[in-house]
Write a structure and sequence with these properties.
It is built from 11 helices and 12 strands. The protein is α+β, with helices and mostly antiparallel strands. A 5-stranded mixed sheet has the order 2-1-5-3-4. The chain has a 5-stranded mixed sheet with strand order 7-6-12-10-11, with helices on both faces. Strand 3 (76-79) and strand 4 (82-83) form a beta hairpin. The protein is globular and about 65 Å long.
């Protein structure tokens, strides 16, 4: 298989991953004595909860104790008492809050939380935990209005090392969803949301937050945000519309322009590490390369330990998932090659420690440009 085609398939498989949801209306929001039937839907892992609020609230509207609440954008979801941060991707929230262990894929007794049962609230919005959903963006042009840069090259030679990281079996409970569930967001549903909809304000707040993270990721990669700020109006709008309408082709036709062609043009990899059983997030500054002189705890040079990740000019070695985690979380990853105490989970799968980090970035980044990696403890 050609490397370019492999990259395309990895990106699309990640983009199409979904999680079945069961949304339950909180008892104090319901006007009926008996509980209301739950709302079921499939949610794309790379999407965001505010994009689903319109139809979720529409479903529960006849049963609301306060009918006026249906016109409010500030609804929120919780899982086992924990409010869900609407500005984080759905797949990240699922991996993080369920403590997902993808290695249990063949264990019939493992609780996958499928469907993922969430409780819908309106009252007592947790302002101490969640950002407000009332800061609206007008969204005529999402990012900037200048000529777009040249297209980036589509793939790097070491991409084959990442194939195993996203080769999810089609029978996996993580991506296989019941066919009876409602479809996910699409253009006809969300492209028509006008300024009169209460959820247009919520989506505006999501746009503001998402754009800031796209710019932040671009700054981390290049040392400036010129690439994203130089996008044409058509491209900047298309980038967000790809997320809004969950259009793989629309999003990646622009997103690949934001990735530097040469690995040596990358200053750092945009990466956030989410630590288990805590509210801590580590935003690590990891360059694409380490020097050959850096040694492992066993005394072996990284270049000899990771010969498959050698740079083309042999002057340095590409950072791998294992070397980056060992550098920034040595207490959880004492080995660069073997998961002893914890595992890195991205998009519902365990990342191989030998995979070059820059190739994971090029093919497995979320729509905001970051690698949001959950750290799952080994029982």
């Amino acid at each position: 298989m050609a490397l370019e085609q492999l990259s395309y398939e990895i990106r699309q498989r990640i983009w199409d991953g979904s999680i079945p949801l069961q949304i339950v209306l909180a008892p104090n929001e319901c006007r009926l004595m008996d509980t209301v039937e739950p709302y079921y839907c499939n949610a794309y892992r790379t999407s965001y909860f505010p994009l689903y609020f319109d139809r979720i609230i529409s479903f529960f509207k006849p049963y609301l104790r306060d009918p006026a609440a249906a016109q409010s954008p500030e609804w929120w979801l919780e899982f086992e008492g924990v409010p869900l941060k609407w500005n984080l991707p759905i797949g990240l929230l699922y991996d993080l809050l369920t403590g997902l262990d993808p290695t249990q894929i063949d264990n019939p007794n493992y609780d996958w939380h499928i469907p993922w049962v969430l409780v819908l609230h309106h009252v007592d919005y947790p302002t101490g935990t969640l950002l407000r959903l009332t800061t609206s963006s007008q969204m005529p042009s999402v990012i900037a209005q200048m000529p777009s840069p040249a297209l980036a090259e589509s793939i790097q030679p070491a991409i084959a090392a990442t194939a195993a990281a996203v080769n999810i079996p089609s029978s996996s409970a993580l991506v296989k969803s019941p066919s009876s569930l409602s479809p996910s967001p699409n253009q006809s549903q969300y492209g028509s949301l006008g300024n009169q909809s209460p959820f247009s304000e919520a989506i505006g707040a999501l746009v503001d937050n998402w754009v800031n993270r796209v710019k932040e990721a671009d700054y981390i990669r290049r040392g400036n945000a010129k690439a994203v700020m130089s996008l044409s109006r058509i491209d900047s709008d298309a980038l967000w519309q790809g997320v809004l309408n969950h259009s793989f082709e629309t999003f990646w036709s622009v997103a690949k322009k934001l990735l530097p062609q040469d690995n040596r043009s990358i200053r750092y990899i945009p990466i956030k590490l989410y630590l288990p059983s805590s509210n801590r997030t580590l935003q690590a500054l990891v360059p694409p390369y380490v020097t050959p002189s850096t040694t492992t705890t066993s005394g072996l040079s990284i270049s000899s330990s990771f010969s498959s990740a050698q740079a083309t000019d042999n002057s340095s070695t590409l950072h791998t998932i294992g070397s980056a985690l060992h550098d920034h979380l040595p207490e959880l990853f004492p080995s660069r090659r073997t998961c002893l105490l914890a595992r890195p989970v991205l998009h519902g799968v365990v990342l191989p420690l030998s995979a070059p980090l820059v190739d994971i970035m090029r093919n497995c980044m979320y729509s905001d440009g970051f690698l949001h990696i959950c750290i799952s403890m080994i029982a």
